[in-house]
Amino acid sequence: MLSTLITKERIQLIDHISDWESSIDLLCRPLTEDGSIESVYIDSIKTTTKEIGPYYVLAPQIAMPHSRPENGVNKNALALLIVRNGVEFNSEENDPVKLLLLLAAKDSTQHLELIQAISTFFCNEDDVSKVIHAKSIDDIIETIKKY
Amino acid sequence: MKIMAVCSSGLGTSFMIELKVKEIMKELGIPSEVGHTDVGSVTSDMADIFICTKDLASSIKFENLIAIPNITDKVAMKDAIQAFLNR
User: Fold this and answer.
1) Interface residue of A48, A119, A129, A131 to substitute, partner B, most B CBs within 10 Å
2) Which of A2, A142, B33, B79 is the Cys-Cys partner for A147 at CB 3.0 to 4.6 Å?
3) Any idea which residues of A carry the catalytic annotation?
4) For residues A110 and A76, what is the distance between their CA atoms, to the nearest angstrom?
5) In total, how many domains does chain B have?
């Protein structure tokens, strides 16, 4: 399930990024380029973050940025960004964030199965750690293919 | 018992919380109905207990609210629910 949506082109692995807004931009880039989302989706995530805080930082090191389907989602899609040195989201308990998984869901019922798979992945500390410390994109694909 | 997981968009985070809460209530042997919704539509008559991420705690002013910092930490979530039920 995850590996069909997180294709090679949608995975990025970097050491450092200046701030959380840049990390959201970079994370979303493959999906705006392939037409899965419109740039308004990115704006919507950033605006809500500024209003209410980093609502998608779910656990230590893990963020799942997302907005509502009507805010520019064209098709169900996921993208993954690993920031090895981490990035601060002002999330007291969970900073620095090293794994960012963008969720773009076309409608709010269709994607339930998908979220179930993501949840199972996030709850497996070993695999989360493997992905964060991966040397290559192929290593990441190998780790997530069972989800 | 009715439990409602709440997040800002009502689709991603709250559903993840719902999945964990369902597992926990089953383990505790407490029959319950668990759902999820967004912060804009939640009303205090929707459930007996509301659960959200810590970031949203200040936006939901219900007395019966549990705020959790880490949604993958099932043990801590279970402890928080138990503490709430025993209070």
Assistant:
1) A119
2) A2
3) 66
4) 9
5) 1
> A101: domain CATH number?
3.40.930.10
Give the CATH number, domain containing residue B13. Answer: 3.40.50.2300
pTM of the model: 0.91
Angle at alpha carbon of residue B76, lines to A124 and A146, rounded to 5°: 10
Helix, strand, or coil (residue B66)? strand
Predicted confidence (pLDDT) per residue in B30-52, tens digit: 999 999 999 889 999 999 999 99
pLDDT digits (tens, 9 = 90+) for A24-48: 999 999 999 999 999 999 999 999 9
Q: Domain range for residue B67?
A: 2-86
Looking at the 3D structure of chain A, how many domains does it have?
1
ipTM of the complex: 0.82
Report the run of H or E that residue A98 belongs to, with start and end.
strand A97-104
Nearest CA in chain A to B20: A119
Segments forming the whole domain that contains residue A35: 2-144
Residue A45 and residue A66 in contact, taking contact as beta carbons nearer than 8 Å: yes
